[in-house]
Amino acid sequence: MPTYIRAKNPGGTFFLTFVSHKRRRFLKDSLALECLQDAYQVTVRRRRFLLRAYCVLPDHIHVLVTLPRGDDDFPTRCSAFKGAFTRAYLRAGGEEGQRNVSRYRSGEAAVWQRRYWEHCIRNEKDFQRHFDYIHFNPVKHGLACEPGDWEWSTYRRYVQRGWYEADWGKTEPRNIRALESVGE
Questions:
Q1: N or C end of the chain: smaller count of CB under 10 Å?
Q2: Which domains occur in the chain, in start order?
Q3: Do residues 156 and 148 lie in contact, with contact meaning Cβ atoms separated by under 8 Å?
């Protein structure tokens, strides 16, 4: 089994992508959205972090999080979030995907892909590219004509705060083209 080396950046900001098992398209269903909110609240209460941006799509989630000063343990937070979601979702009647032998043996539900994508944000320009990528993602996937049409992201919040012009994202922003294959 490969050993994954995760970035160490105490107090750092990370772009994370969680993908559903076999890309099952259920994450924006009302039950899943409720369980995502609950899992976020449980996780942030136990292991503090700042959620800077998010976008929930039918089969994956992008988030941008900043850890507390001196703390570099985002893997524990990722595991806690995915676990809290899975327990709440299955307990509430949500259905898991088809488990393989390995998942049966380990008692692992078929809700999420085992791994997740992570990227340590290096500077302000890198932050802005990933921030924009998150908010443009529903348009990229053909789920919305413009970012403001998609309600399951932080885009509208940032328009209200003046971080984005209301018409931002009518065309693909140049600064995110290099991120096309990030985490997907």
A1: N
A2: 13-179 (3.30.70.1290)
A3: yes
